Amino acid sequence: MLYLLAKWLHFEGFANLIRYQSFRSGAALLTALAIGLIIGPRFINMLRVRQGKGQPIREDGPQSHLAKRGTPTMGGLMIVIALIGSLSLWVDVQSRFIWACLTVTLGFGLIGFLDDYDKVTKYAHKGVSARVRLLAEFAVAGIATAIVVTDTNLYVPVFSNLYIPMGPAYYLFAAFVIVGAGNAVNLTDGLDGLATMPVIVAAGTFAIIAYLAGRADFAAYLGIPHVPRAGELAIYCAAVMGAGLAFLWFNAPPAAVFMGDTGSLALGGTLGVIAVSIHHEIVLGIVGGLFVMEAVSVIIQVAVYKRTGKRVFLMAPIHHHFEQLGWKESTVVIRFWIVSIVLALLGLATLKVR
């Protein structure tokens, strides 16, 4: 809204400041942070009153988690509200990248909300069936992919101008990246603050990459694919960071509210569509390596158990494995945060190591 107003004023005077994506990124982060902190207390109280028993806690999980009974879930709604409120002020709503991201954020958020709602009302872990949820996610991801994809090459990091021409198969691959990212973050969200900070770190990393990819001069210098007007995604990432920081204020141990599938699916899917938009899908696998590790641990556990009846990990996802080994929850969370920061730095290093 403010960007269109500034454009109508021909970016004269103070409105000229809004022309710059760097300024709008900082403003979007602070706006989302402020909205989240303001609405947080009342929103959490509302969730607590409406949900009663809160999110169901697994009886077969770590015994320390039983103390979390009664903690409300669907806190991801706070993130989405803060995110949309900030974006409505600072992004160029005429950008197709913004609409593709909004499609995934709201679509995946709705799918997660329905899943959370089913769990809360029935006070059970099952929720919406996995098949229905995946079909809905691929439908949303397919729409976003159709909006944003114009180049069907898969670019390989580290090597300059090296890419794999995928043709029409790229659309399926892109949808898989988006759905995979959403579900990987969803699996990571099992401890207080565990998924929130790595998402913030990943969003900050992709804010930098999106800005560079949107600049022809920087993209040419770094040997990365240039995506015209992709810089608007830096503002989207900054808003995700602000909304995530506000949520972390209330989600820090001991959590006053859980993100739920509403937030984890929305945030993970958003990271996926941003990576697809700027052709850094493989880099997402590096930056979001923590999410990949969590998802792979579940896949391995299920596959091996079905085949042999034995478990590779004491409990999956892998953060529960370390809890079962005796690590305190706060130790697992902070060490996983450190891992996410290191992986983000490795992801950024691929920009220059070519």
Average pLDDT value? 91
Q: How large is the count of helical segments?
A: 14
Q: Roughly how much helix do the residues carry, as a percent range?
A: 55-70%
Task: Provide the β-strand percentage band.
Answer: under 5%
Global structural class: mainly alpha
What string gives the helices and strands in order?
HHHHHEEHHHHHHHHH
| Biggest sheet layout | 2 strands, antiparallel
**Cα-atom radius of gyration:** 20 Å
- Spans of at least 5 consecutive residues with low confidence: none
Keywords:
354 residues, mainly alpha, two-stranded antiparallel ribbon
Briefly characterize the structure.
This protein has helices spanning 2-8, 21-51, 76-90, 96-122, 130-148, 169-188, 196-214, 216-222, 232-251, 260-277, 281-287, 289-308, 318-324, 329-349, and strands at 153-155, 163-165.
